[in-house]
Amino acid sequence: xxxxxxxxxxxxxxxxxxxxxxxxxxxxxxxxxxxxxxxxxxxxxxxxxxxxxxxxxxxxxxxxxxxxxxxxxxxxxxxxxxxxxxxxxxxxxxxxxxxxxxxxxxxxxxxxxxxxxxxxxxxxxxxxxxxxxxxxxxxxxxxxxxxxxxxxxxxxxxxxxxxxxxxxxxxxxxxxxxxxxxxxxxxxxxxxxxxxxxxxxxxxxxxxxxxxxxxxxxxxxxxxxxxxxxxxxxxxxxxxxxxxxxxxxxxxxxxxxxxxxxxxxxxxxxxxxxxxxxxxxxxxxxxxxxxxxxxxxxxxxxxxxxxxxxxxxxxxxxxxxxxxxxxxxxx
Length: 331
Known about the structure:
The chain is mostly helical. The protein has helices spanning 2-26, 31-63, 79-102, 108-115, 118-130, 136-152, 155-158, 165-185, 194-212, 223-253, 255-262, 265-275, 283-306. Residues 67-75 and 309-327 have low confidence and may be disordered.
């Protein structure tokens, strides 16, 4: 039960991010400042944790206790492996940049719904790559997700003219980017220790963001004049804490249950949009959110009811993938 709570808390942490970003925009901070300060915080926190883990490994080695798993230590990774992990971290930054940019043009509640389109995009991409028709349960799930998305986005209430299409495009591109990241990330040195793996990936994401948006906030006083609290909580709740919680909880809860628990990010984000940002969320939109959650949970529920094998890989949780429970995305 404890591990399920860890996965749930990780998803809830992700659900808070878009509200903090919207508040930061309201204070006049730019996309580069918001994302840069978030990744800088995540970079500092994850490398501090990596140092603690490394010191613990050395103490065990000196005492002659359990040997360190090959490839798990920072010094045991080759530079080729480190460079690969740095490159694997770039898509996380790209997804975050696209998602946060969408918040400039559309409501927080709509942006998170668009990001959740990675659920069906992942199934579609796997179908194309594997050239195998999805199970009928998966097809039914995709229908539920599609209908739920239309309802949650308020399409039937507002019509096509009620949106800034720049925000729609950025939101969908963020979902595409995250889909590609999840499907490819498991191949990036999966044998490495989760903490060290995350450390190098966050570093890669930070370097990319700093290349695109030079971190002038470090030198012009912006960080200490009000940006720091936003960057700290974004880094803590986005780049550091959820990946750690998922890395601990997912192996014990299982990928299917993790997908269900991870989907709690969606209602949390929509709820905060309504309560904190005072965005209007109608009853029909809430019904759409429930349909999306049902779509995420349906493959796992079918598996448990039938007591057999899952017909196809369930949509992965927002915090990770089947091959890599510590995978995360900057959001």
